[in-house]
Design brief:
Elements lengths: L5 E8 L2 E8 L11 H4 L4 H4 L7 H10 L8 E5 L5 H8 L3 E6 L4 H11 L7 E3 L12 E7 L7 H12 E11 L5 H10 L3 E7 L11 E8 L1 H8 L1
């Protein structure tokens, strides 16, 4: 027994049904080899990767129709990797990343549940350079600005992994930490387009959720580098 309980749900993402294995609740925890502890993941944080969160679902739905033709895509903090699974289903060139010790196993299991090839996965800590990962045309993430310091860490990561012409797309449930991230990306030449989004059935306009799309042209990148 793995020490935690899971269940399988069917989710409609875009125009396709996906079977997703997730943890049954937020009380699940298992770290027999202390891998999570060594990574700084507390027992309270441990289960967060293994749930279908509204922001993750919103990102997956966005990826069901987003233009990804000819683009290399990186998902940051993928958790269950809903968006990466949708992109894999569409045949996109996608790499999922996280640093939770079980993220890769859940992602691989869910790909198999949906009769698709495994999604390429890389362990990635945002504060640790990984020169082997390469660069991407589109970098995505759901609710990855949930701590105050994440804006600094993520904005420092992007120059290592984003092409000069690139897009960064993040779903934010309205935690209030996106402003410093937007300021940092502005200095890197990105322009923000923001869309308000319903995060759940109880949301009323103006919706608290946002789809943040940052885009950069080659000229803007050159200006920011001078």
């Amino acid at each position: 027994m793995p020490g935690y309980d899971t269940h399988i749900r069917t989710l409609r993402l875009g125009d396709h049904d996906y079977r997703i294995r997730s943890l049954v609740d937020l009380q699940q925890f298992a770290d027999p080899d202390h891998n999570a502890q060594r990574l700084g993941i507390s027992s309270a944080q441990w289960s967060l990767f293994g749930h279908v969160w509204p922001a993750g679902r919103l990102l997956a739905e966005a990826m069901a129709t987003h233009d990804v033709a000819g683009k290399r895509v990186l998902e940051l903090g993928c958790g269950l990797g809903l968006a990466s699974l949708v992109l894999r289903h569409r045949g996109a060139d996608v790499v999922a990343s996280d640093y939770h010790p079980l993220a890769e196993a859940f992602l691989s299991y869910n790909a198999a549940l949906n009769d698709m090839p495994a999604v390429p996965y890389r362990t990635l800590r945002w504060d640790t350079p990984n020169e082997t990962l390469g660069r991407f045309d589109l970098i995505i993430g759901s609710d990855i600005l949930y701590e105050r310091d994440h804006a600094v860490r993520l904005s420092a990561l992007l120059p290592r992994h984003a092409h000069s012409v690139s897009e960064v797309l993040i779903t934010d449930p309205g935690r209030g930490n996106s402003a410093p991230f937007t300021r940092a990306l502005t200095t890197q030449g990105y322009v923000l387009a923001e869309q308000r989004c319903r995060m759940n059935a109880d949301d009323l306009p103006p919706y608290r959720g946002r789809l943040l799309s940052y885009s950069r042209t080659a000229a803007a990148h050159a200006r920011s580098a001078t």
